[in-house]
Amino acid sequence: MKEIGYYNGEMGLLNEMKIPMQDRALYFGDGVYDVTFAYNHHLFAMNDHLDRFYNSCRMLEIDFPLTREELTAEIQKCVDAAETDGAVVIYWQSSRSNSKRNHVYPDPSNQPTLLITITEAKPMDYSIPMKLITWEDTRFYHCNIKTLNLIPNVVASQRAKEAGCGEAVLHRGNQLTECAHSSLLLLKDGVLIGPRLNELILPSISRKHLFEIAEQLGVPTEMRDVTMDEVWNADEVIVCSTTKVTAAADTLDGKPVGMKDRDLFHKLQKAYFDRVEKEIGWKLG
Ligand SMILES: Cc1ncc(COP(=O)(O)O)c(C=O)c1O
């Protein structure tokens, strides 16, 4: 396959593409992004990802100029240009503009930018449970906007990697928020539990799908404040994201967690895999 880069209408091989020095994403991280995947040129869950992308734009007052249809067409062009029938990760971001550095918003004649990358999707080995660390959540209070400001997430991910782990479980004191680049859900006594949606966590699409699947399967769900004590005592600790889909964790800070309701976890995971296969033909797991 070819890895593709796109910037404001120009498309080429990813490692040959360049962006202008005055893109506000570079010096302010002043932009938003979203991520999904495609298989055999079919885009996954675009409606959900577009809803979140335009909502992120609205919350940051970025007047993104393309309609949903126009944006989807640009993304589709990039996916097709990758020339693969396999799975690809689609990343796109919009910054407020390409204009001289100035903290205040530029004149509206400076239009928001669009950057797209298409890279290979590497499916996880779902038979290996994830290892996690805990990490105090020091992010600002707009985590519900998918902004480019990800420094605390980057540092937390690095600490997890250094500990030989796949994710960092973020918490504010005893309150669970999410992971550095995934959501965290629990199974306890047959109930799927996740932190309530507020400004402290991203409205994750994979999490939304898991809640929908649970409801379809008749599994009770709860969205509410969740403590770290509950994470330690959960029957299953579930890490989910668009690219990871859904995986169970078996250790947290080197101590055992979860892995006590394998049947229900596998039922939810299989239903998610089936959903992906039904929508775009990609067979996971
Ligand atoms: C901080 C954070 N939380 C949760 C998620 C999972 O979101 P989604 O399921 O939409 O991929 C991500 C994914 O990038 C993330 O960065």
How does this model look, in words?
The protein folds into two domains: 4-120, D-amino Acid Aminotransferase, Chain A, domain 1 (2-Layer Sandwich); 130-280, D-amino Acid Aminotransferase, subunit A, domain 2 (D-amino Acid Aminotransferase, Chain A, domain 2). The protein has seven helices and 15 strands. The chain has helices at 24-28, 46-59, 68-81, 151-162, 205-216, 228-233, 262-280, and strands spanning 4-7, 10-13, 31-39, 42-43, 87-95, 115-120, 130-136, 167-172, 175-179, 183-188, 191-195, 221-224, 236-241, 245-252, 255-256. The strands form two sheets. Strands 7, 8, 9, 10, 11, 12, 13, 14 and 15 form a nine-stranded mixed β-sheet that branches. Strand 1 (4-7) and strand 2 (10-13) form a beta hairpin. The protein starts with a strand and ends in a 5-residue tail after the last helix. The mean pLDDT is 97. The site of pyridoxal-5'-phosphate has 14 residues, from helix 5 and strand 13.
